Amino acid sequence: MRLWDNAGALKRINNGLYVLVVLSLLAAAVVWMMNSPYFPIKSVKIDGQLQRLDAAQLQQTAQRHIRGNIFKADLHAAREAFEALPWVAEVEIRRMWPDTVQIQVSERQPVARWEGGGLVDSEGRAFDAPTDEPFPVFSGAAGARKIMVEEYDRFRAILEPTGLKIERLDYGQRAARTLTLDNGLVLRLGRLDAESRLRRFVQAWHEVLHSRADSVRYVDLRYKDGFAVRYRSGEETPAVPEQAASAANPHGDAEP
């Protein structure tokens, strides 16, 4: 049977040609739209709660990377350019018909300075950015940054009733925590039960230590029930809250 005598085959060929024509027209339409002067970007909107980012720098970045035809603009390259700015945490860019590009910027929230250089944000990520703002100093293994941020927030909340601020958080061997406060006082929290130990300090601060704050060098809280105090004079005195005095053994139960 000849092809032109096969109605079914001719119909399939006809349908295939029709699909090819439609696809070709669609492709041509896309190419025309992407290169047409009739769809220019007329407006770029930048939104976000910005405190440290320079609005002029954001506008300059947008002007360099988002221009021309709205369909042809390389938003991926624009996103990378914005994310390369020091204070930018995340950025979302989208086209809004017919002539607008909207940019939503999230700013990094710095929490601390990292010993050795740079800053640490609220997600525990290290970054470099110029700032003269005072931040506490974190010191430890790079992999501990996130948990240090989380614990710093909890430690700060526990200390709030005392009015004391954390100036430094050190993560030593096996995650032994040491805090340096804004009055120069050093708190050795150790590896275990750091938050409960810090609460014990807060209680003792109001009951015992506040009146002698200027003479205290450090408080060692690495004991099961109590703590030890070293004074600036060199004197070292075991001390515990009164209600725990009978149970405490400050010289025998220190965590290594």
TrEMBL record:
**According to its UniProt record, where is this protein mainly located?**
membrane
Record's bilayer topology term? Single-pass type II membrane protein
GO biological process assignments? cell septum assembly; FtsZ-dependent cytokinesis
> Where are the residues of the annotated region Disordered?
234-256
POTRA domain: residues covered: 39-108
Q: Spell out the Gene3D superfamilies in the cross-references.
A: Cell division protein FtsQ/DivIB, membrane protein fhac
* One Pfam family per UniProt: POTRA_1
Q: Which GO terms describe its cellular component?
A: cell division site; plasma membrane
Q: Kindly list the places in or outside the cell where this protein is found, as annotated in its UniProt entry.
A: Cell inner membrane; Membrane
**Protein keywords:** Cell cycle, Cell division, Cell inner membrane, Cell membrane, Membrane, Transmembrane, Transmembrane helix
The membrane spanning regions, by residue number, are 16-34
* Lineage top rank: taxon: Bacteria
Q: How does it assemble?
A: Part of a complex composed of FtsB, FtsL and FtsQ.
Function recorded in the entry: Essential cell division protein. May link together the upstream cell division proteins, which are predominantly cytoplasmic, with the downstream cell division proteins, which are predominantly periplasmic. May control correct divisome assembly.
Which family does the record claim for this protein? Belongs to the FtsQ/DivIB family. FtsQ subfamily.
Q: Note the PANTHER family from the entry.
A: CELL DIVISION PROTEIN FTSQ
Protein name, entry field: Cell division protein FtsQ
Q: Whose protein is this, by species?
A: Neisseria shayeganii
Gene encoding this chain?
ftsQ
